[in-house]
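REQUEST ID: PR-0412
SUBMITTED BY: lab tech R.K.
PRIORITY: routine
TASK: structure prediction, single protein chain
INPUT:
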Amino acid sequence: MWHNGFSVNQLAIIIPALNEEQAIARVLSEIPAEYRGEVLVVDNGSTDGTARAAAEAGAKVVREAERGYGAACLRGIASLNRPGVVLFMDGDYSADPRDIPRLLKPLSQGEADLVLGARPAHSLSPQQRWGNGLATWLIRLFWGHAYRDLGPFRAIRYEALQALGMEDRNFGWTVEMQVKALQRRLRVCEVPVSERPRIGRSKVSGTARGVLLAGSKILYTILKLRLRSYL
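STATUS: complete
OUTPUT:
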């Protein structure tokens, strides 16, 4: 059992993974036993042994051939059997599973519909800090809410997630969720989480091309959702 009567079988954890063979077993082994509900690793076209390592570590593995963080998350959601809460975390070891209780507490106490993990600013690269700053400034300008981060470590009630109608299939996934949560007047809060050195190279911030593509898609997503609100 966990907070306030929620049972572990109401929790689903989705871990998108692309070439995380070295990290994924360690990530899965560190999820606290009392929070091991449905653990789903979405292999996003890995060319290494990510899927095998995840399965051997006890996770359910599904595959999404279309490369893209959002595509992997959508595949994971489609594979769930109506849990109470869905938690998203990366498979590169950067997120610390010991922070899971902190993310779930506001949900289980009925204080929030979406809980976001806010990473320490010093743990982010200069490119990430600049991009986060611009994106959160635009969100505050357009919707009046001051987010601190666009980090991927987050938990949301399943019914609230379904109501968002998530669409983005790559770099705009996290900001789409945060903007749509405001548009649909969900109760949103952020809690501090730790950020560890990832194992392996970042698929986004590790290359100039990745940074440019991610930044452009995040800004495009914000502006698109703002324009839709006028239509």
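NOTES: Helices lie at 24-29, 50-56, 69-78, 100-108, 126-143, 158-164, 173-183, 208-228.
REVIEWED BY: pending
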